[in-house]
Write a structure and sequence with these properties.
With about 550 residues, this protein is an alpha/beta fold. It is built from 21 helices and 23 strands.
Length: about 550
């Protein structure tokens, strides 16, 4: 064992604050005694007023029992006490007389000599005994240096078992993986304090939880914005795998790599009873009413918090987990949310997903969603939606709200949407799309295929390809399959099906449903009073707009 392994240094505040001088002295003396019994011989202190003096006196007292130990004074300069009060100088000189060795860092004071003294003591020691309550002080700098150098640090201030107060909430950050605990909200004597701790441990005792902390430091609450109880407990959260909104009744925390993190949420009646400390009562109630209960534990990886996005928390990809869902599932979830949460989620989605999701949402929600979005976001979403879907949304808005949205559309799109809005509800025209593929009578199969290759069409536009005459009247229909299987030089009029099943725009939607079902059609052309092709009704639109809502209401 070298000299360093046998050496301990001291560092602490000049002002003990609220702590009793005699109690600090006794605690320090107990620690020195324990160290002396375990082979520590040399004890170095800086001789300053406050804890340095207490440490020196503690070593001198223990030396009477263990005469092998030595008090080493490492002083910053020879004139350290030049401005001290007489009683402090007297005590200082008595300690110097009893010291086994005195070393001066400098003959006279200069900026940096105290810092040099502190580093010298740390460099020569294997243990640092400190009195640290202010983590912005010079003592804190010395202790941090000791930790960096690998010394064992004993903080006398941690030995007092002070009751800080009642834990009310926990601050977490969501910057990486499981939410990481970064602070604690504590209430004592009617006042609220905000702390971080160097160490914190939780113990169960007599059906209560005791929390033991070390190294407390007050923090500014505005630095942290996400409180577990305030932002998660009793709040709605999305179960990504179950594709549903659930309420958080309790939380599970675990220590991972020395840090406390939220690893799961619990939902269910017993979880809530357990949180309130009356799990037995909950079980009894459910037994009396003869009702089963189901509690679920959802890992954090499988949930998405709806309360964690606000002006204070800047997350790179908000609602990232929600963005992995199918638009139809996402639509179901959004329907369960309040207006505020729904808006936040929608604003975060990319325009393609937002557009697809909006198409899947129940009609009663569409109008309120689009009008609540920012003008920029609304324009992005609508740009990615078919005009017939836009018309459906605008149909539920008043004139002012409608015009506000129309003004952000391209001129041609706005004109087309206005035309669609003229059709009566429950008619074929009200549900038709203006997006379809049509060609003239004399075009060849090869020419059609070449055009299809070069032009971007939506998937449902390929359901049927319509053939028109010189009057723009629909006279035939051809499938994509027939185009592929036919030689390129053949004209389309030779293979088209002249049975078009066309419907007038002013007929009842029931006519379209009946025809699609009877003839197993994927789409039906829509014509005006002059038999001119003006649109198409796709089967999936009938299902989405008419049949699915009926089924959904029936099975709620």
């Amino acid at each position: 064992m070298n000299l360093k392994d046998k050496t301990c240094c001291f560092s602490g505040h000049r002002n003990l604050g609220k702590y009793d001088y005699n109690y600090v002295y006794q605690r320090t003396k107990d620690i020195v005694t324990l160290l002396a019994e375990n082979g520590i011989v040399y004890f170095g202190t800086g001789g300053a007023i406050g804890f340095d003096t207490i440490a020196a006196k503690a070593v001198l007292a223990v030396r009477e029992i263990y005469p092998q130990i030595k008090l080493i004074l490492v002083l910053p300069c020879e004139d350290q006490a030049r401005y001290w009060k007489a009683e402090n100088v007297e005590e200082y000189n008595k300690i110097k007389e009893q010291a086994d060795k005195i070393r001066y860092v400098s003959k006279s004071y200069y900026d940096g000599c105290i810092h040099k003294k502190n580093r010298h003591m740390v460099d020569c020691s294997s243990i640092c005994v400190c009195f640290l309550t202010d983590f912005e002080s010079g003592t804190a700098v010395t202790v941090d240096y000791a930790i960096e150098k690998g010394l064992d640090v004993i903080n006398v201030a941690d030995e007092f078992d002070d009751v800080l107060g009642e834990l009310k909430d926990i601050y977490v950050t969501t910057d990486e993986g499981y939410p990481r605990v970064i602070g604690y909200k504590v209430k004592k004597d009617g006042s609220t304090f905000h702390y971080e701790f160097r160490n914190i441990n939780f113990y169960a005792s007599d059906n209560k939880v005791k929390i033991l902390t070390r190294g407390s430091k007050e923090i500014l609450p505005r630095t942290y914005s996400y409180l577990l109880s305030e932002n998660l407990l009793d709040k709605k959260i999305v179960d990504i795998n179950g594709k549903q909104v659930v309420r958080v009744d309790d939380l599970r925390l675990a220590e991972i790599a020395g840090e406390y993190r939220v690893i799961a949420v619990e939902t269910g009646p017993l979880a809530k009873f357990r949180r309130m400390g009356c799990q037995g009562v909950g079980k009894f109630i459910y037994k009396v009413i003869n009702k089963d209960y189901e509690d679920r534990v959802l890992m954090w990886d499988d949930v998405e918090s709806l309360e964690m996005i606000n002006n204070n928390l800047k997350i790179a990809v908000p609602y990232k987990k929600l963005s992995t869902l199918h638009p139809a599932d996402l639509a179901d979830i959004l329907e369960e949310l309040d207006d505020s949460s729904r808006k936040l989620v929608f604003e975060s989605l990319d325009e393609d997903l937002a557009a697809d999701t909006l198409e899947e949402i129940e009609p009663e929600y569409k109008g309120s969603i689009i009008k609540d979005l920012s003008e920029e976001k609304a324009a992005e979403v609508l740009e990615n939606m078919p005009n017939d879907e836009i018309a459906d949304i605008l149909d539920d808005l008043d004139d002012d709200e409608r015009e506000k949205i129309l003004v952000n559309l391209e001129t041609e799109d706005a004109k087309e949407v206005k035309e669609l809005l003229q059709y009566e509800d429950e008619t074929v025209g009200s549900i038709m799309s203006k997006d379809f593929i049509s060609f003239n009578l004399d075009i060849t199969i090869g020419e059609i295929i070449e055009i299809l290759r070069e032009t971007e069409y939506e998937d449902d536009e390929f359901n049927s390809i319509f053939i028109k005459d010189e009057k723009e009247e629909v006279i035939g229909v051809v499938s994509l399959k027939d185009l592929i299987l036919t030689k390129p030089e053949i004209k389309v009029k030779e293979i088209m099906n002249e049975k078009t099943n066309a419907l007038r725009y002013d007929l009842d939607i029931d006519e379209a449903i009946e025809k699609c079902a009877k003839y197993d059609l994927m789409s039906i052309p829509v014509v005006d009073e002059h038999e001119v092709l003006i649109g198409v009704v796709n089967t999936h639109d009938l299902i989405d707009e008419i049949l699915y809502p009926i089924w959904k209401r029936k099975n709620k």
